[in-house]
Automatic annotation (TrEMBL):
GO biological process: thiamine biosynthetic process; thiamine diphosphate biosynthetic process
InterPro entries: Aldolase_TIM, Hyethyz_kinase, Ribokinase-like, ThiamineP_synth_sf, ThiamineP_synth_TenI, TMP_synthase
Reactions mediated catalytically: 4-methyl-5-(2-phosphooxyethyl)-thiazole + 4-amino-2-methyl-5-(diphosphooxymethyl)pyrimidine + H(+) = thiamine phosphate + diphosphate; 5-(2-hydroxyethyl)-4-methylthiazole + ATP = 4-methyl-5-(2-phosphooxyethyl)-thiazole + ADP + H(+); 2-[(2R,5Z)-2-carboxy-4-methylthiazol-5(2H)-ylidene]ethyl phosphate + 4-amino-2-methyl-5-(diphosphooxymethyl)pyrimidine + 2 H(+) = thiamine phosphate + CO2 + diphosphate; 2-(2-carboxy-4-methylthiazol-5-yl)ethyl phosphate + 4-amino-2-methyl-5-(diphosphooxymethyl)pyrimidine + 2 H(+) = thiamine phosphate + CO2 + diphosphate
Recorded superkingdom: Eukaryota
Record organism: Coemansia reversa (strain ATCC 12441 / NRRL 1564)
Pfam families: HK (PF02110), TMP-TENI (PF02581)
Presence of keyword Disulfide bond: no
Name of the featured protein: TMP-TENI-domain-containing protein
NCBIfam families: PRK09355.1, thiE
Free-text function comment from the UniProt entry: Condenses 4-methyl-5-(beta-hydroxyethyl)thiazole monophosphate (THZ-P) and 2-methyl-4-amino-5-hydroxymethyl pyrimidine pyrophosphate (HMP-PP) to form thiamine monophosphate (TMP).
Keyword Electron transport assigned: no
Family from the record: In the N-terminal section; belongs to the thiamine-phosphate synthase family.
Thiamine phosphate synthase/TenI domain span: 12-210
Length: 525
C-alpha cells in the first residue's frame, strides 16, 4: 500500500445505511462524528442509489475519511471506488469475483469479502482478500440474509478454520457483522476467540448501532470502550487465570482466601442481583447477606436499566421459569454485559423440558455467561451428553465416569467457568480444573442448596476486572460447603429443617482461618 493511503485498522468498522439516519443529521455528518468517536474504517453501502448520486456522496464521505486518515471502502461498486479513488471495496458472494476485482483495482487497494461458510472463507483467503467480514452473527433488519444467523460460535468456527489454513500469503484479518452493538460487543469478541490460541477477531462491524442514533460520536465511543475492554481487560484477554494456573496449590489457596477476606472484612459489599426461582428466593437472599453480600431481587424488564451501573454481579436461575421472567432475564443480562458485570447462570432442570433447553441456548447465544453452574445432569444436558440423567431438578446416579474431561471440555467450548456440583464439586476455566471435597449430604436434603451455590459464586465473583472468576468460584464453593459441614456437625441440628436455618448461621460465622485450614481442594488439571 502506498504510504499516503490510510492504514487498515478493523477495530471498529462502520457500514453505512442512509435509510437508517435519524433525520437530524446527514450521512456525511454521521460518518464524521462516528470517526471522531472512534470508528477506524468506513464502508459506504448504498444499495439503491443511482450511480451519479453514489459518486457524489462517496466524494463527500472520502473528504471526511481522508481528513481523519481512516480508509473508505465502497460496497460492491468497483466503478464508484475507481471514480472517486476510494481505498478499496467490499464485496459479497453475489458480486464480481474477488479475482476480477483484484485485477481491476491492483495489488494496493483493500478488498474485503463477506463470507458465511468455511468454504467461502477459505476461497476468500486463498484469493487474497485483505480481510473477511464473517456473518451473519445475529439477526438484523439491516440486510435480507440468505443464511441463518450463526451466533458467535458459528462465527468462531469459521475464524478458527481460516487461521489454521496452511501457508497464507498474507496475515488473515476478520470482523464479524450482524446485530452487533455496545451490549453484545464484549460477549461476541470473547466468544469468537479461537479455542486453540485464544485469538480474537480484529474488530466488529456495526450498522444500526451507529447509523440509527442521534449521537453517532457517543455511540462509537461506547463501542470502542467495549472493544477495548474485550481485547485488553476481559478475563479471556488477560494472561488468563495466571493465579489458578500456577502449579503451586498454596498460591491458589492464598488467592481464594484473599477473595473471601475482602468480603468478610467488609471492605467490599457486593450488590448481587438475582432473578431466581420462587422456591429459593428467600434462602438465596439470606445466604447472600450471611456471606457479606447485599442481595437485590429486581425482576421487572423495565426496571433493569436504572440499578445496572451499581450491580456487582447477576445470578440468572431458571428454576421456575415463565415467559415474562425470560424478558426480565434478557433485559438484565443485556445491561450486565454493557457494564461488564459478571453473570452466573444456573440452568436448573435444563434437561426437563425443550422449553428450558431453548431458553438457555438463546441466553447463551445472545449474552453468554461468566460462570455456568449445574449439577451433573444439568451439565450433561448442556454439553449434549447422555451419560447422566435427571429427574426433575435432581441428578440421577453416580455422575460422569470422567467428570474432569466433561467440565474442562464444556468450559473450553463456552469460554466461561463451569462449576459442576455433587458430592464432589468440579470447577474449571478450561485450562485449570479443580475438585472441592467439602460439603455434607444434608445439603442434598434441603431444596435450593444448588441455587445457594449460585448465590455464593456471584457474591465472591463480584467484578470481572478484579476477581479471577475461577478463584472467586472456588472461594464461593468452598465457603458454602464448609458452612454446611459446620452446620451439620452442630448438636442442635436434628434434620433438614434445623439444618436449613443453621446453614445460614454458619455462612455468617465462617472465618478466613477456617477456610484456609479446612478447604479440601485438589488440582486435577
Ligand atoms: N453427598 C454430598 N456430600 C457433600 N456435599 C454435597 C453432597 N450432595 C450435595 N452436596 C453439596 O450441595 C450443594 C448443591 O449440590 P447439588 O448437586 O445437590 O445441587 P442441585 O442438585 O442443583 O441442588 P438443588 O436443585 O436442590 O438446588 C453443593 O455445594 C454440593 O457440594
Ligand atoms: C424444587 C424446585 N423446582 C423448581 S426450582 C426448585 C428449587 C431447587 O432447584
Amino acid at each position: 500500500m502506498a504510504a499516503s493511503e490510510p492504514k487498515l485498522d478493523l477495530t471498529l468498522y462502520l457500514v453505512t445505511d442512509s435509510g437508517m439516519l435519524s433525520g437530524s443529521k446527514t450521512l456525511v455528518q454521521t460518518v464524521d462524528e462516528a470517526i471522531q468517536g472512534g470508528v477506524t474504517i468506513v464502508q459506504l453501502r448504498e444499495k439503491t442509489a443511482e450511480t451519479g448520486d453514489f459518486i457524489t456522496l462517496a466524494r463527500k464521505v472520502l473528504k471526511v475519511t481522508r481528513k481523519a486518515g481512516v480508509p473508505l471502502l465502497i460496497n460492491d461498486r468497483i466503478d464508484v471506488a475507481l471514480a472517486v479513488g476510494a481505498d478499496g471495496v467490499h464485496i459479497g458472494q453475489d458480486d464480481m469475483s474477488l479475482a476480477d476485482v483484484r485485477r481491476i483495482l491492483g495489488p494496493n487497494k483493500i478488498i474485503g469479502v463477506t463470507v458465511q461458510s468455511l468454504e467461502e472463507a477459505e476461497a476468500a483467503v486463498r484469493g487474497g482478500a485483505n480481510y473477511l467480514g464473517i456473518g451473519t452473527c445475529y439477526a438484523t433488519l439491516t440486510k435480507q440474509v440468505k443464511v441463518e444467523p450463526q451466533g458467535p460460535s458459528g462465527i468462531r468456527d469459521i475464524w478458527e478454520h481460516v487461521l489454521k489454513l496452511p501457508n497464507p500469503t498474507h496475515p488473515i484479518r476478520a470482523v464479524t457483522i450482524g446485530g452487533i452493538n455496545a451490549y453484545n460487543a464484549v460477549h461476541v469478541l470473547d466468544s469468537t476467540r479461537t479455542l486453540s490460541g485464544n485469538i480474537p477477531l480484529d474488530g466488529l462491524a456495526v450498522v444500526s448501532a451507529i447509523m440509527a442514533t442521534e449521537e453517532p460520536r457517543l455511540a462509537a465511543q461506547k463501542m470502542r470502550a467495549q472493544i477495548r475492554f474485550a481485547l485488553e481487560n476481559s478475563w479471556l484477554a488477560r494472561p488468563h487465570s495466571n493465579l489458578a494456573s500456577t502449579e503451586d496449590l498454596q498460591v491458589v489457596r492464598r488467592a481464594v482466601v484473599d477473595v473471601f477476606m475482602q468480603i468478610k472484612s467488609g471492605s467490599h459489599t457486593p450488590l448481587v442481583q438475582h432473578i431466581t426461582n420462587l422456591v429459593v428466593i428467600n434462602d438465596c437472599a439470606n445466604a447472600c447477606l450471611a456471606m457479606g453480600g447485599s442481595p437485590i431481587m429486581v425482576t421487572e424488564p423495565e426496571e433493569q436499566h436504572d440499578p445496572a451501573p451499581v450491580i456487582s454481579s447477576l445470578v440468572i436461575n431458571i428454576g421456575t421459569l415463565d415467559k415474562q421472567q425470560v424478558v426480565g432475564m434478557r433485559a438484565a443480562m443485556r445491561e450486565a454485559r454493557l457494564h461488564n458485570t459478571p453473570i452466573v447462570l444456573d440452568p436448573v432442570a435444563v434437561g426437563a423440558s425443550k422449553y428450558r433447553a431453548q431458553v438457555i441456548a438463546e441466553l447463551l447465544r445472545d449474552f453468554g455467561a461468566h460462570v455456568i453452574k449445574g449439577n451433573a445432569s444439568e451439565i450433561a444436558a448442556l454439553a449434549g451428553s447422555e451419560e447422566v440423567k435427571s429427574r426433575g431438578v435432581d441428578s440421577l446416579g453416580s455422575g460422569f465416569s470422567d467428570p474432569v474431561a466433561v467440565v474442562t471440555e464444556y468450559s473450553r467450548r463456552q469460554r466461561c467457568v463451569v462449576v459442576m456440583t455433587g458430592a464432589v464439586d468440579y470447577l474449571s476455566d478450561g485450562r485449570s480444573t479443580f475438585a472441592i471435597r467439602n460439603g455434607h449430604p444434608l445439603q442434598a436434603a434441603i431444596t435450593g442448596s444448588g441455587c445457594m451455590v449460585g448465590t455464593a459464586l456471584a457474591t465472591y465473583i463480584h467484578s470481572i476486572a478484579h476477581v479471577d472468576p475461577l478463584i472467586g468460584a472456588i472461594a464461593g464453593m468452598a465457603a458454602i460447603n464448609l458452612a454446611a459441614e459446620h452446620a451439620a456437625s452442630r448438636n442442635d441440628v436434628k434434620g433438614p429443617g434445623t439444618f436449613r436455618a443453621t446453614f445460614i448461621d454458619e455462612m455468617y460465622n465462617l472465618s478466613s482461618q477456617q477456610l484456609q485450614d479446612e478447604m479440601v481442594i485438589e488440582r486435577l488439571l
